[in-house]
Amino acid sequence: MPPWPLPALCVWALAWLLFLGGRSFLPVFAAVLLATGGSLLASLWGPTWWRRGMIAAGFPLSYAVLAAGSLPGWGWLLLLGALLLVYPLNAWRDAPIFPTPAGALQGLADRIDLPPGAPVLDAGCGLGAGLRALRQAWPQARVQGVERSWVLRWACALRCPWARVRQGNMWVTDWGRYHLVYLFQRPESMSRAAVKSLAEMPDGAWLVSLNFPLPDEIAATHTAQLADGRSVYAYRCPIAAVDHDGVQADEAAGHAAAVTPEGVIVRGERLYAPRRRPGGRRRST
């Protein structure tokens, strides 16, 4: 890896070359999208998240400063529309496009024995880095992914032709059919993952999360350390016993659950997680 900030300077220069070259045969907004997309892909070169952010943001910010006085209003709307295609508004509560490092799941491969043909799911697969890590760790499994963005779904399918990738909401997808579900989301998403795991995943299945453990002091069955200091957490289902009596007691005492607008769809019902409990209560849709 060249010394910092040389990687950022190289990517910014290449992005401007892409933009200037694209201007010869593309409209301005398309050339901007081309250069921005190239910056996003090249940002994977960065060793840390903040450096990847600087690499990715260099061209868009520099172009915005130069073009702020000349780009018409509809041009900004087109750029916003392109962003929403890649990252839909209703997905903003989940993780943005953060790729899984290569070989991140290798530390669990000898601890989690999956039978040949076992279906595994990357929930929120993005551009397919997690799918590749799953295939590397468990080559005998049937790797599948679900991604909310249509653009990322098609890009991921092209990048990972051996995987079954579909467009959809990972919180609506039934996790009960999979032997292992992999997540690389946000800390705020892990409570929903715990609720959905308890409600849908069969005994003996695995819930695996990169970097973020489940809440409520749920102990991981296995933990693997990555070279960059992050950890992978593996939970054998059921992750915990649901204290149904305690949930009913809370409701009788008038303790309201922390209800989100969307909740989690479980077998046609909307499920909300009470605070400090991995279980949940159901409300009919």
From TrEMBL:
GO terms for biological process: methylation. The chain crosses the membrane at residues 61-87. Keywords: Membrane, Methyltransferase, S-adenosyl-L-methionine, Transferase, Transmembrane, Transmembrane helix. It comes from Comamonas nitrativorans. SUPFAM superfamilies: S-adenosyl-L-methionine-dependent methyltransferases. It comes from the Bacteria. GO terms for molecular function: methyltransferase activity. This is Class I SAM-dependent methyltransferase.
